[in-house]
C-alpha cells in the first residue's frame, strides 16, 4: 500500500436475528411428517437436514414452528392455504426494517461513529422488495441526513454483502471524507416452498433469517480491532449461469441451487484468488458459508486448517446461510476470536459466491490498533 494512502477499514459491525429459533432436528422431524405421502422425499430430507452443517437457524415467521398439519409452508397444504407472494412480501416489509435498524445501531455504536458522519447508505437484500424501500425507511429511523447517498443493492444473492463492502472500500479510498453504512437484511425462510422436490427441500434445509451492518471509513489513530480493506475483485466463474437461480413465483421466490456448485468453485476459483495468494497462502479466510460443501472445497483446495475455517463453520452451524448478511457474521466472529487471543496484525481474504456464478473477493487485514503515523496521513485527506 502507498505510504500516503488512508487506512480504509470496517470501523464497526452489528448483527441481529429474529426472535424465533428453528432447531434443525425438530424442523427436520416436522417436515418429514408433512412429507408422509412422499416417503422417498421424507428420507432424503432427513439426510440432507442432518448433513448440511446447520444446528440452529432463525426465522421471522412463527408459523414455521408449528406442527406439520398447521404450517402453511410445508407440503400437503391446499393451494389456497399456501402464503402468496404478496402475503410474504407484507411480512418482509413489516419485519425487515426493525431488524436492519437493530444491526445498524449496533454497527454505529461499535465503531463509535456519529450518525451525522454517514455520507453513504448501502442497503442489501434479495429476499424482498417494497417502495419506498428499506433505504428510505432507515434514513428516517436512524436520523441520517436527508442528503445521504442511498445505494440499494437488490437481487444479487449471497455475494451481495461482500459486494457492498468492496463498493464501500472504493468510495472511501477515492473520497476519504466519506463514511459508508452498509445494512444487509435477508428473510430467507419466507420463501420456503410447500414442495416435495429435492431442489425445494435442499434450499429449505440450511437458509435462515438475519441482518448485519457495518461502517466503512478511514481509520484514525487509536482505533482498535479493525479489518483494513484492500481493493475488491469481482468475477463470473465459467459454467455457472444456471447453477443458482432465484425467480419470483406466485408463492414467494423459487430457488434452484445446484449441488454441483462446490465442484464448479473448486475448478475455477484459483484464477480469481491468484492476486490474493501471490505472496503466500493468507492466514485469514472469511468464506461466506453458502453451504458445507463450499467450505469443504475451499479447505481441501488450499489446505486450510480447521482453525482457519472455524468461524465460517460456526456461523453456518448457529445461523445457517443468511444470504448477503452472512459474511459480516463471519467477520465479527473472526474479529472477536482475534481480539480474545491478542493477535497482532494478520492478513487474509474475504470471499463470497452468488448467482452467475459470481465471485466477490476483498483483501482484509486485522489491525489490533492503528498507529499514530496513520492519523497524520489521514489528516491530509480530510
TrEMBL record:
Keywords assigned by UniProt, alphabetized: Acyltransferase, Transferase
Domain Chalcone/stilbene synthase N-terminal: 9-218
EC number: 2.3.1.-
All residue ranges annotated as the Chalcone/stilbene synthase C-terminal domain in the record: 234-364
Pfam families: Chal_sti_synt_C, Chal_sti_synt_N
InterPro entries, sorted: Chalcone/stilbene_synt_C (IPR012328), Chalcone/stilbene_synt_N (IPR001099), Polyketide_synthase_type-III (IPR011141)
GO MF: acyltransferase activity, transferring groups other than amino-acyl groups
Any GO BP: polyketide biosynthetic process
Name of the top EC class for this enzyme: transferase
Protein name: Alpha-pyrone synthesis polyketide synthase-like Pks18
Organism of derivation: Paenibacillus solanacearum
Amino acid at each position: 500500500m502507498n505510504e500516503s494512502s488512508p487506512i480504509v477499514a470496517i470501523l464497526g459491525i452489528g448483527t441481529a436475528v429474529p426472535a424465533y429459533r428453528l432447531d434443525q432436528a425438530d424442523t427436520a422431524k416436522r417436515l418429514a411428517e408433512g412429507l408422509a405421502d412422499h416417503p422417498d422425499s421424507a428420507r432424503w430430507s432427513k439426510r440432507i437436514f442432518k448433513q448440511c452443517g446447520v444446528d440452529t437457524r432463525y426465522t421471522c415467521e412463527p408459523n414455521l414452528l408449528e406442527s406439520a398439519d398447521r404450517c402453511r409452508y410445508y407440503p400437503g397444504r391446499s393451494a389456497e392455504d399456501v402464503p402468496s407472494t404478496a402475503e410474504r412480501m407484507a411480512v418482509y416489509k413489516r419485519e425487515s426494517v426493525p431488524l436492519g435498524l437493530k444491526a445498524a445501531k449496533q454497527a454505529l455504536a461499535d465503531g463509535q461513529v456519529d450518525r451525522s458522519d454517514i455520507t453513504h447508505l448501502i442497503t442489501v437484500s434479495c429476499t424482498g422488495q417494497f417502495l419506498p424501500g428499506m433505504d428510505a425507511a432507515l434514513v428516517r429511523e436512524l436520523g441520517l441526513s436527508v442528503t445521504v447517498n442511498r445505494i440499494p443493492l437488490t437481487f444479487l444473492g449471497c455475494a451481495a454483502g461482500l459486494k457492498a463492502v468492496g463498493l464501500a472500500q472504493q468510495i472511501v479510498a477515492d473520497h476519504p471524507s466519506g463514511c459508508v453504512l452498509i445494512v444487509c437484511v435477508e428473510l430467507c425462510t419466507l420463501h420456503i416452498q410447500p414442495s416435495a422436490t429435492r431442489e425445494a427441500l435442499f434450499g429449505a434445509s440450511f437458509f435462515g433469517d438475519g441482518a448485519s451492518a457495518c461502517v466503512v471509513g478511514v481509520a484514525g489513530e487509536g482505533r482498535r480491532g479493525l479489518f483494513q480493506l484492500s481493493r475488491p475483485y469481482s468475477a463470473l466463474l465459467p459454467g455457472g449461469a444456471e447453477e443458482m437461480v432465484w425467480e419470483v413465483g406466485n408463492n414467494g421466490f423459487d430457488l434452484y441451487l445446484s449441488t454441483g456448485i462446490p465442484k464448479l468453485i473448486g475448478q475455477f476459483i484459483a484464477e480469481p484468488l491468484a492476486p490474493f495468494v501471490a505472496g503466500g497462502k493468507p492466514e485469514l479466510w472469511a468464506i461466506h458459508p453458502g453451504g458445507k460443501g463450499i467450505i469443504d472445497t475451499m479447505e481441501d483446495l488450499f489446505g486450510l486448517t480447521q482453525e482457519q475455517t472455524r468461524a465460517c463453520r460456526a456461523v453456518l452451524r448457529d445461523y445457517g446461510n443468511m444470504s448477503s448478511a452472512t459474511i459480516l457474521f463471519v467477520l465479527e466472529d473472526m474479529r472477536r476470536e482475534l481480539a480474545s487471543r491478542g493477535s497482532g496484525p494478520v492478513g487474509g481474504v474475504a470471499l463470497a459466491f452468488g448467482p452467475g456464478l459470481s465471485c466477490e473477493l476483498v483483501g482484509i487485514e486485522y489491525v489490533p490498533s492503528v498507529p499514530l503515523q496513520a492519523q497524520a496521513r489521514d489528516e491530509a485527506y480530510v
